[in-house]
Amino acid sequence: MSIFKRLRAGVKRAHQAVTQPKRYTLMGKFVTCSHCGGQTFFAREAQLNTSWRTFLNVDWLDENAAVLVCSKCGHLEWFLSNPKSFTSST
Length: 90
Fold this sequence. Notes:
By secondary structure, the protein is α+β, with helices and mostly antiparallel strands. Helix content is about 25%, strand content about 30%. It has a single domain, classed as N-terminal domain of TfIIb (Single Sheet).
């Protein structure tokens, strides 16, 4: 297999790993969508901007939140602490 085919296959696997929805846990419980009950999510991060810091142009001082996007309905679940990705042992 050529180096380019190997590289392309590796990029494809990495893209699938990032774009596949996953299950998450927080405080020992599985996260479920509060709207539809879905159990798989895409992980994102969002900055919690404040108007005063935006006015002073120091948004980078604001906190970030973990956001899980339900893969079933698109509902957003927001968390100040980071949920952990759950990987099954099967």
